[in-house]
Amino acid sequence: MTFQLFIFYLFSAVTLLSAVAVVTVRNPIYSALFLILAFFSSAATWVLLEAEFLGVVLVLVYVGAVMVLFLFVIMMLDIQVDTLKEGFIRYLPVGLLVAVAVAVEMILVMSSDVFKVDIPAPVPLSVDNTKALGEVLYTEYMYPFEVAAVILVVAMIAAIVLTMRRRKGVKKQNPSKQVRVRRNDRLRIVKMKAEEKKS
Hints:
mainly alpha, elongated, 199 residues
């Protein structure tokens, strides 16, 4: 066994164990941290398979953005752990049955003749896969890439509009009114008689 194969098995084992811990750990913060560990291990596996772009994207997008948002939401919601423990034993047989069914289906699919193909010998590339992916993405698939970007922007705007609702009693500022403010709107000069000192 070579050192690279040993590292591959090590990262694969860490990914599997952390994925199991995500489901079995009852504390949601620990579960999110185990999911971050699974993402890091998967990214290391991608790098070992010479897919550096996918590994970097996995770390930047999922660990850097999505998981930080998950942790922020979990800590802001103040989830009661005791209520999560109540139905664990009751739904455990159903969960084990579904897990066994999914495992049997995956074994049957992977052991069929459809996936038994000869693996071609690796062809050395003149450029790395990140550069090759960029050239293909911004030349041949430029139009689908732009369409996907527009769809994501529309989805983001729709999510903001749907979640933005007006609440009563909330103080807010209006920048346009602040810019157009005049001196007479904020300042009032009051003329008063001077007080005389009584002797």
